[in-house]
Amino acid sequence: MQTSPDRHEYPDHWEADVVLRDGGTARIRPITADDADRLVSFYEHVSDESKYYRFFAPYPRLSAKDVHRFTHHDFVDRVGLAATVGGEFIATVRYDRIGADGTPATSPADEAEVAFLVQDAHHGRGVASALLEHVAAVARERGIRRFVAEVLPANTKMIKVFTDAGYTQKRSFEDGVVHLEFDIEPTDRSLAVQRAREQRAEARSVRRLLVPGSVAVVGVGRTPGGVGRSILDNIRDAGYTGALHAVNRAFAEDQKEFDGIPAHRSVREIEGPVDLAVVAVPAEHVPDVVAECGEHGVQGLVVVSAGYAESGPEGRERQRELVRHARAYGMRIIGPNAFGIINTSPDVRLNASLAPAMPRSGRIGLFAQSGAIGIALLSRLQRRGGGVTGVTGVSTFVSSGNRADVSGNDVLQYWYDDPDTDVALMYLESIGNPRKFTRLARRTAAVKPLVVVQGAGSAPQGHAVRATRLPHATVSALLRQAGVIRVDTITELVDAGLLLARQPLPAGPRVAILGNSESLGLLTYDACLSEGLRPLRPLDLTTQASAADFHAALLKVLEDDACDAVVVTAIPAIGEAPATGADADAELAQALKSASEQVPGKPVLVVHVELGGLAEALSAAASTAPRTSPEAPGARRLRPSQQLPAQASDRQTAAPDTAAPDTGTRLIPAYPAAERAVRALSEAVKYAQWRREAAQPGKVPDFDGIDEKGAARIIDRMLSRGQGLTLGTEETCELLECYGIAVRRAVPAFTPDDAVRAAEDLGYPVALKATAPHLRHRADLGGVRLDLADEEQLRRAYAELSGLFGKPEELRPVVQAMAPRGVDTIVRAVIDPAAGAVLSFGLAGPASQLLGDMAHRLIPVTDREATSLVRSIRTAPLLFGWRGSTPVDTPALEELLLRVSRLVDDHPEVVAVTLEPVVVAPHGLTVLGASVRLAPPPARDDLGPRTLPRY
Predict the structure, then answer these.
(1) Nearest CA-CA partner of 742 in 732, 750, 752
(2) Beta strands of 406-509 (E only): which ranges?
(3) If you average pLDDT over residues 103-119, what whole number do you get?
């Protein structure tokens, strides 16, 4: 436990902004002596019933002694936290450390009594649940492991707060009081409860922004062309279904309307609630607007104003103050410097953005930080021809600008169970919290596709995020393991998104190719091979093929169990035909549509050349707009991209709501190039495979010979020497041995005689190695001599190394018993400040290092993940008998990976482990070198309470 040297020092790291159940925000912070007036005011707004439940007796007011007691804490044995909105208390919680007899105590007593009080106006908002998470984290930090609470039986709401938290608890009833006792160490159930609450709260906070009942645009210019005026016009022209208000302090006092819309000089003048305010005033006037909105009870802001973090240090501080100011009133922000938001639902029809036209309504959700990228995405999906063609609509669109508050993580929480969104497309210039994004992505990808273009930029300016030390490629690999469909360009983003929105997932990589151009068919065949697919021999229908020929051929291959997907290639027909031009395009589109509907379980794509009419005809043949199920009117149904292939359906991860398969018409996507169509299909194949594997995720096995408590004692002993240190050889071996990882002993040899004595002790044959930093693990430099069979060979080798590289104190030579021959590998684990604990594996040697041939998995690693980790490096064939070599013991290697994963997962103080080399032989393996680095664990980690990014 890390504690402050001053027990009374204010713990500012306990301060946190949280999202409550209804989507509003509150600030949680320690209570101090300066809060006496706030506490008294808070208590005056609590009902007599709530006071009775808190004190078990009528207690109309707090005495001076009470106020002193509840505002003076040592932040160790006595702690009080308050939830605030607008700077005023809305709820409090406190704990007092107690001994076995229930009286006040100090450490090492590890039990505390906890009590809550919530203003009645804020009941039902999840305030007490959020406070319980935070006070439990504080208590754990201070060495408390158990809470006790006494509650009156009639206080069912508070009893429910405790019982629903997911902690293992004991309950008893005595003298008319319910006595609760529970450990506060996180459990699988408590974490699941916390994650579910986080999802509901953050989704609700985004819904308040995207589905407002009323909108005020602040900063509406009186002349056309300004930002505020344009957004007001866009909202009105889109047919927004709620109440719309125009606000400008320059309006005349008696002006009631502006261009047919109610006009106001201030948000305060608006009668009735305002759910969303779009702020388009100069940055220096935004604080006044935020205050007006907060006092009026506005739920959220879209700030399109510029002049914030993108403009330099002064703007960065202005942005931080904007977020702090808005959160103080319980409001969330999209922006600043945002392009805006769109919701195409017929019940909302909100275009609070700078996009001049409302996109078509559909099933694709879009998120972009950059306004320019947002425009590009919307235009790609909107237009026909000149790229990916066809009518595909948008459900919601968010362009977050500087992403000061609402981020892609929040929008992902909303899309997870949004019935109007089937596919999520995201352009992320940076990922501020990769650990959380990966967790959310894994859950979302299990029920709907998530396609991401990830930029290589830095963290958003002004945002206090933890910077990752991992290479960009490594973070991308970790995203793919979480089910993210990772693409490189906006074109690929849209290509993949359209296929996933329109077609079912393929059951495998086998691709049938048919069309009226042999050359185009061969191009498609080659593209399939390049993407790792298994194309069948192309079927050439010749250039004289009619629509009926296409229909018959497509129907035949769809009915063939040997194919999982079909790519149709088409060029303009040559020769006489009953239909030409647009009629021929429509006839061909109808033929393809008819065949795909007869056998609906496989995806169909079209590659067209100079056939703009065909693409439009395919688009007209079906729609991705929401449809009512004929089988169950009003019921939610799985869209094509949410359906797994038939043979995998029994392993499908359940969506938030169960639904019957969608048997409606599907839209066939058309692509202007074979490479683009095949790339999109390849991503769909890999995603479908991930879905099948995610349905059976594997398990973290329990191994014999693991001494978790012994390892903890070693770690505590080592950390008592300093804040962070690399363990010595003996301590490293001792710690690893607690987890069943044996490191072959290496004996220092500072003289030839030392080397001989070590060899006699270890037994010949031996190896002599130089371990100086510039020579360590560099056999290519000649610093290693192997298979030394006797004293003569050992002395000769010692002399050679000394002659080549210098004195023994420069070489740092060691003697080690020879290991069985095998393949040299590397196993590493590291705690990344943003991504979390990562396990890495690769082969040792310069070739692998030059190629960057390392594979990575997030810890804790399951048995299935360990198996895939070993096989996912490009040089993996060397482990499995490449060119007639003897295969090595990969099960032993997988067990080693799992043991390292378990060590790092059990002990967050272990921030780095390197095993190099690990020689994997045909039977067993040998760890020849190891290093471990320790550091104090963070006060808060991903297992901690819910909190928004700090400013």
Answers:
(1) 732
(2) 423-428, 450-454, 485-487
(3) 94
Backbone phi and psi for residue 853, each to the nearest 5 degrees, phi listed first? -85, 70
Reference 340, options 239, 240, 210; nearest CA is 210
What is residue 679's predicted lDDT score, i.e. its pLDDT? 97
**So what's the pLDDT on residue 779?**
65
Question: Of 8-12, 433-437, 498-502, 777-781, which has the strongest mean pLDDT?
Answer: 498-502
Look at residue 437 in the predicted model and tell me its pLDDT: 86
Q: Which residue has the tokens 């930080």?
A: 369
What own/partner pairs with CB < 8 Å and gap ≥ 24 does 664-667 have? 664/627, 665/593, 665/597, 665/621, 665/622, 665/623, 666/502, 666/503, 666/504, 666/596, 666/597, 666/600, 666/622, 666/640, 667/390, 667/391, 667/392, 667/502, 667/618, 667/619, 667/621, 667/622, 667/623, 667/624
What is the reported pLDDT for 466? 59
Q: Are 617 and 640 in contact (CB under 8 A)?
A: no
| Residue bearing tokens 């306990």 | 14
pLDDT band at 383 (very low <50, low <70, confident <90, very high): low
Number of helices (H) and strands (E) in the chain: give both, helices first.
27, 39
Q: How confident is the model at residue 635 (pLDDT cuts 50, 70, 90)?
A: very low
What are the angstrom distances between the C-alpha of 536 and each of 406, 509, 604, 679?
47, 10, 15, 17
Q: Would the pLDDT of 303 be above 80?
A: yes
Cβ atoms of 856 and 839 within 8 Å: the answer is: yes
Q: Which residues of 256-274 are buried (b: 16+ CB within 10 A; e: fewer)?
A: eebeebbbbebbeebeeeb
> Distance of alpha carbon 297 from its chain centroid, rounded?
31
* Three-state helix/strand/coil letters over 179-210: EEEEECCCCHHHHHHHHHHHHHHHHHHHHHHH
pLDDT score recorded for residue 943: 64
What gap in Å lies between CA 508 and CA 552, rounded to an integer? 23
CA 919 to centroid of chain Cα atoms: 35
CA proximity to 500, closest of 672, 664, 682, 322: 682
- Taking a C-beta distance cutoff of 8 angstroms, is the pair 513, 701 a contact? no
Alpha-helical (H) ranges within 484-580 are 490-502, 518-530, 547-558
Which of 127, 16, 19 has the alpha carbon at shortest distance from 413?
19
Burial of 632 (0-12, 13-18, 19+ CB in 10 A): exposed
Q: 738: closest CA among 711, 762, 778?
A: 711
Identify the pLDDT of residue 900: 96
pLDDT: is 224 or 165 the higher one? 165
Conformation bin of residue 443: beta by default, left when phi > 0, alpha when psi is -120 to 50: alpha
Burial environment of residue 417 by CB neighbours within 10 A (0 to 12, 13 to 18, 19 or more): middle
- The predicted model scores a pTM of 0.84
Which DSSP string do the residues of 330-363 spell out, in sequence order? Answer: T-EEE-SS--EEEE--TTT-EEEES-SSPPPEEE
Whether the pLDDT of residue 32 is over 90: the answer is yes
The 10s digit of each residue's pLDDT in 546-605 is: 999 999 999 999 999 999 999 999 987 655 444 556 677 788 888 998 999 899 999 999
50 — phi, psi (to 5°)? -65, -40
Contacts of 761 (CB under 8 A, 6+ apart): 747
Query: What is the spatial distance between Cα 548 and Cα 579, in angstroms, rounded to a whole number?
Result: 12
Note the pLDDT tens digit of each residue in 459-484: 555 444 556 667 777 777 888 888 99
The better pLDDT of the pair 174, 524 is held by: 524
Rounded to whole angstroms, the Cα distance separating 475 from 481 reads 10
Q: What DSSP designation does 706 have?
A: -
CA–CA distance, 456 with 466 (Å, rounded to integer): 15
